[in-house]
Design the sequence.
């Protein structure tokens, strides 16, 4: 009988934990996202959506900037998860690749700019704790994470765009260019 009670308590405990997690989101990340979205939309309105779109189009004209500088700016200034909204300034065929690049960069930026994604900081701190224990400097690690991240997001962005364009053409959503 005690076994059945423990199963029942564990079962309801799982839902209680889920409720606590949900309330944490409601009181933590959701208000943050609402304020960030409001602030970004306000800046876009003040500057003018046409100007922001033109700037984004100039910045993303070349794939090397589209999948390096653009996601870096998005993650640095808007942080995770708000950074993905920068994709709204791109054509549909480039949005999946931009998202892939931006989401792949939220960890590598953490060593130099922890504000960009504090949730990922524990990974970097775990690795850096080992180096600190060995008496090694952390600067080179943070810099190599960043540089390696930029190379990875460029490769992922290019490959994802190629795949997206092929799939869109195959489905008739995009004409041959």
Sequence:
């Amino acid at each position: 009988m005690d076994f059945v009670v423990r199963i029942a308590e564990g079962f309801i405990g799982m839902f209680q934990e889920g409720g606590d997690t949900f309330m944490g989101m409601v009181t933590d990340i959701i208000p943050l996202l609402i304020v960030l979205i409001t602030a970004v939309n306000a800046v876009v309105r003040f500057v003018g959506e046409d100007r922001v779109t033109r700037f984004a189009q100039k910045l993303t004209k070349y794939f090397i900037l589209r999948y390096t500088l653009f996601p870096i700016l998005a993650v640095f200034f808007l942080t995770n998860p708000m950074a993905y909204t920068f994709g709204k300034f791109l054509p549909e065929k480039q949005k999946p690749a931009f998202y892939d690049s931006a989401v792949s960069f939220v960890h590598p930026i953490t060593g130099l700019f922890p504000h960009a994604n504090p949730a990922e900081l524990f990974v970097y701190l775990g690795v850096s704790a080992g180096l600190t224990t060995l008496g090694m400097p952390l600067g080179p690690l943070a810099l190599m994470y960043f540089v390696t991240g930029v190379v990875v997001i460029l490769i992922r962005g290019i490959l994802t765009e190629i795949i997206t364009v092929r799939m869109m053409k195959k489905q008739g959503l995009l004409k041959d260019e």
Summary: DSSP finds eight helices and no strands in the chain.
